[in-house]
UniProtKB/TrEMBL annotation, chain A:
Presence of the UniProt keyword Transmembrane helix in the record: no
The protein's Enzyme Commission number: 6.1.1.11
UniProt name for this protein: serine--tRNA ligase
Organism: Zea mays
Residues covered by the Aminoacyl-transfer RNA synthetases class-II family profile domain: 79-365
Molecular-function annotations in GO: ATP binding; serine-tRNA ligase activity
Protein keywords: Aminoacyl-tRNA synthetase, ATP-binding, Ligase, Nucleotide-binding, Protein biosynthesis
Region called Disordered, residue ranges: 305-329
From TrEMBL, chain B:
EC number: 6.1.1.11
Chain positions recorded as L-serine binding sites: T300, R331, E354, N467
Name of the featured protein: serine--tRNA ligase
Aminoacyl-transfer RNA synthetases class-II family profile domain: residues covered: 208-494
GO molecular function: ATP binding; serine-tRNA ligase activity; tRNA binding
Keyword Repeat set for record: no
Top-tier EC class: ligase
Coiled-coil blocks: 102-129
Length: 383, 512
């Protein structure tokens, strides 16, 4: 319509333009709706799977490593609940009144045991180059979703805060993953390794009937978590490193455990590969999961928006423009990994049940003694 | 507990409501009023009638009235006998409790109760008359009369329940009594009890904790604002060690003094929060609530520790019960806009080690002094400069009979900031939490001691409760960073904390 036109020609064009514009608006709305729906559906596609991961349900998980063996006792053993009662270590009954079932108070030496496990884990893991962190335990629900959890699902594990878009974290993985949300990291900064201490809150909805005895399944617990942001080529190596750190920690405590390569049916959407450690709990007569190490490759980083800029192979030009990166190449998504260093309640179960003695006392694992003022024994006679 | 006192009169019903129209309750919900509610404390040994102990809010009552989930054991007779003192106390504390309404309702209660009893007596009389042989027409008349009396009685009994609930709610908002030595007035009337140390003079330009934290890579507020919102933070590197050291050290020092260590739930039922004297449902409440649940996040371990002996009768020989409890604390800080909010000074989540004592009434004053002394020793050993204040009536908060606050010097923020609070709540919380003790008998017990009778040991009494902050981590981090900074930007670690930090003596920029 530029330039001189006959008024009637112009008018016809104006009409045509108007029709096209209305049609366009309608179609653009449809496009937005469609994009949203496409995005939502596509986001629920789980991560790809490492070729070595066994296919199948829980029973198909493969044993990677076994450390120690089931201790044989020459006296009648007790489970952690009974030991805790006799040593005045927990109170589940008062907590049921004050808070509800699956809550508990820790008392006396159990407090020292929790603090020792946390302090020891932070100390050991930071020696390996992990940066210590203490994280928020209330986060925006969008961050929870970006990490691959579902706060709004029926039977969700996630507690929500009333009148708010905030939730309680079920693991420090969430606030740690979020710490670099919507960022472009320099390649030289990678890998970023964090060891994070937080309380964790889980509804355990849908766990009715599952093992719930005592400290085995609770709504609130302390956990020290390892988290790595790295270059894609390195995530396999860091996964091996993380599981080795875990195995060393539990072996040094004297626990008997199995490391499993979890089967496809048990991975959870974000994990490319997942190793779980199950430790022997003689009082509960079972192996129970005490930790999990996942390589999430770029599943979380694509949602959290975490990229890195690969370093240029040639010296940069004198006029490096921010964002252009002609010499350094386009940004890539980092890979993220997370692994439990200590999840306190189940380790307390393991320590009490495995190291109990005939007289009802508990031998404190050596690595924890310096963190408990040198205490070597939890003993009934001191109550 | 750190101050978060707001006085808001509790009730869902308006003050102009009249109660007689509420007649929709079915008979099954009618309960006899518990006489003990109106008698003196010593007779409150009888088991309290509790409505809805599982706290689900109970059955639909009359239009819009919220049934209380629990009842404090209020000593109405004492209030009546000390009306002027109670009114005076409400005034000096700036409480919005409505004492006139309480008395009005109490009088209505007494009148209605008499009426109910009169009707009951009449109904019994009619029932008695119907025994034995009667003329059919006489019997019929009696049956009619009995029926009318019964209906009238049901209606009045419903009204009585409603009235009792409202009376209870209004009375529960009456604040605790006040220690005679407490200064009267607002914040500025608080009296200095003790001062330790003095403001350090620096020969270099000092920085506040935010700048020091940035240079030493100790916190991240920006990332936390994205992930969680404002007033959240990550602690990093040595700040993590500092927090752990403060907590470990406090638990260790305080347990040496005979306090039992505890780690507590941080999610509790809202009724327990209320029984401790907080108000989860008030506008601008400090309390976070969990969606689709009657649960809340704790703002202080005082709540789960107070709750640990809820609805119990303790042996006198067990007292005092002394606990040192570690928990995270969550506070909305709603209504704190404009108040000091810089950096770690006011945050939504923090770690705290709290001391809590259950004791005999005669001893609470002594334990209050003991608790404040423990606090003063802790902070003096860290090398802090601080003032201990006897808080004035306007600043007490409903549960406290007397409250000592400690304010430490924060040179970077150029102010004294509250780092701890020690309250003697006497029987305010125990009357709500239902915590009593059985005094030991003066003579040897009879051979057939019956549980619950206690003839030789006397009726049960309410315990007194006290709470006091051992360490509230973020503000202590502010104090440590700002007071112990050096010209080169490093921070000297207070001596008592060094063993808990692997011997670390200095937080130093050159190691980053």
């Amino acid at each position: 319509m530029k330039g001189k036109l006959d008024p009637s020609v112009r008018q016809a064009l104006v009409e045509e333009g108007k029709n096209l514009k209305e049609g366009l608006i309608a179609l653009e709305e449809d496009l937005v709706q469609l994009t949203d729906k496409l995005q939502l559906e596509a986001q629920s596609i789980p991560n790809t799977t490492h070729p070595d991961v066994p296919v199948g349900g829980e029973e198909s998980s493969v044993l990677r490593k076994e450390v120690g063996s089931q201790r044989s006792f020459n006296f009648a053993i007790k489970d952690h609940l009974q030991l805790g009662k006799e040593l005045d270590l927990f109170d589940f009954d008062a907590a049921a009144e004050v808070s509800g079932s699956k809550f508990y108070y820790l008392k006396n030496e159990a407090v020292l045991l929790e603090m020792a496990l946390v302090n020891w884990a932070i100390s050991e893991v930071s020696k390996k180059g992990f940066t210590p962190l203490i994280t928020p335990e209330i986060v925006r629900s969008s961050v929870v979703e970006k990490c691959g959890f579902q706060p709004r699902a029926k039977n969700t594990q996630v507690y929500s805060i009333e009148d708010s878009d905030q939730c309680l974290i079920g693991t420090a993985e969430i606030p740690v993953g979020g710490i670099h949300m919507d960022s472009i990291l320099a390649e030289s900064a990678l890998p970023l390794k964090y060891v994070a201490y937080s309380h964790c809150f889980r509804t355990e909805a849908g766990a009715a009937g599952a093992a719930t005895r005592g400290l085995y399944r609770v709504h609130q617990f302390s956990k020290v978590e390892m988290f790595i942001f790295c270059r894609p080529e390195e995530s396999g190596k860091w996964h091996e490193e993380l599981i080795t750190i875990e195995e060393d920690l539990y072996a040094s405590l004297g626990l008997h455990f199995k490391t499993l390569d979890m089967a496809t049916g048990d991975l959870g959407a974000p994990a490319y590969r997942k190793f779980d450690i199950e430790a022997w709990m003689p009082g509960l007569e079972r192996y129970g999961e005490i930790s999990s190490a996942s390589n999430c490759t770029d599943y979380q980083s694509r949602r959290l928006g975490i990229r890195y800029r690969p370093s240029p192979s040639e010296p940069p030009s004198t006029s490096t423009k921010k964002g252009k990166g002609a010499a350094s190449g386009p940004t890539q998504f980092v890979h993220t990994l997370n692994a439990t260093a200590v999840a306190v309640p189940r380790l307390i179960v393991c320590i009490l049940e495995n190291f109990q003695q005939g007289d009802g006392s508990i031998v404190v694992p050596e690595p924890l003694r310096p963190y408990m003022g040198g205490l070597e024994l939890l003993s009934p006679k001191f109550k | 507990m750190l101050t978060c006192g707001r006085f808001i009169s509790s009730s869902a019903a308006t003050s102009t409501a009249s109660f007689f129209p509420f007649r929709t309750l079915t008979r099954s919900l009618v309960r006899r009023p518990a006489p003990h509610l109106l008698s003196s404390a010593s007779a409150a040994a009888a088991t309290a009638v509790e409505l809805d102990t599982n706290g689900d809010g109970s059955a639909g009552g009359g239009a819009g009235v919220v049934r209380p989930q629990w009842k404090a054991a209020i000593d109405f007779k004492w209030i009546r006998d000390n009306r002027d003192a109670v009114a005076d106390n409400i005034r000096t504390r700036n409480s919005t409790a409505n004492l006139d309404l309480v008395f009005e309702l109490y009088d209505q209660y007494l009148t209605l109760q008499k009426e109910v009893e009169r009707l009951r007596a009449e109904r019994n009389a009619v029932a008695n008359k119907m025994k034995g042989k009667l003329d059919p027409s006489v019997r019929q008349a009696l049956v009619e009369e009995g029926k009318n009396l019964k209906e009238g009685l049901i209606a009045l009994e419903e009204d009585l329940v409603q009235l009792t609930d409202k009376l209870q709610l209004e009375a529960q908002s009456i604040p605790n009594t006040t220690h005679p030595d407490v200064p009267v007035g607002g914040e500025e009337s608080s009296v200095l009890r003790k001062e330790v140390g003095s403001q350090r003079s620096f020969n270099f330009a000092i920085k506040d904790h935010l700048q020091l934290g940035k240079e030493l890579d100790l916190f991240d507020f920006d990332a936390a604002a994205e992930v969680s919102g404002s007033k959240f933070y990550y602690l990093k590197n040595e700040a993590v060690l500092l927090e752990m050291a403060l907590v470990n050290w406090a638990i260790s020092e305080v347990s040496k003094k005979g306090f039992t260590p505890l780690i507590t739930p941080e999610i509790v039922r809202s009724s327990v929060v209320e029984k401790c004297g907080f108000q989860p449902r008030a506008k601008n409440t400090q309390v976070y609530s969990i969606e689709d649940s009657d649960q809340c996040l704790i703002g202080t371990a005082e709540i789960p520790v107070g709750g640990i002996h809820m609805d119990s009768i303790l042996a006198e020989s067990a007292l005092p019960l002394k606990y040192v409890a570690y928990s995270h604390c969550f506070r909305t800080e709603a209504g704190a806009a404009g108040a000091a909010t810089r950096g770690l000074y006011r945050v939504h989540q923090f770690s705290k080690v709290e001391m809590f004592i259950f004791c005999r009434p005669e001893e609470s004053g002594k334990w209050h002094e003991e608790l404040i002394t423990i606090e003063e020793d802790l902070y003096a050993s860290l090398g802090l400069h601080f003032k201990t204040l006897d808080m004035a009536t306007g600043d007490l908060g409903a549960p406290a009979y007397r409250k000592f606050d400690i304010e430490a010097w924060m040179p970077g923020l150029e102010r004294y900031g509250e780092i701890s609070s020690a309250s003697n709540c006497t029987d305010y919380q125990s009357r709500r939490l239902g915590i009593r003790y059985r005094p030991s008998p003066s003579e040897p017990p009879s051979t057939s001691t019956k549980k619950g009778k206690g003839a030789a040991s006397g009726p049960t009494q309410f315990v007194h409760t006290l709470n006091a902050t051992a360490v509230a981590v973020p503000r202590l981090i502010v104090c440590i960073l700002e007071n112990f900074q050096q010209g080169d930007g490093s921070i000297v670690v207070p001596e008592p904390l060094r063993p808990y930090m692997g011997g670390l003596e200095l937080l130093s920029p050159k190691f980053k």
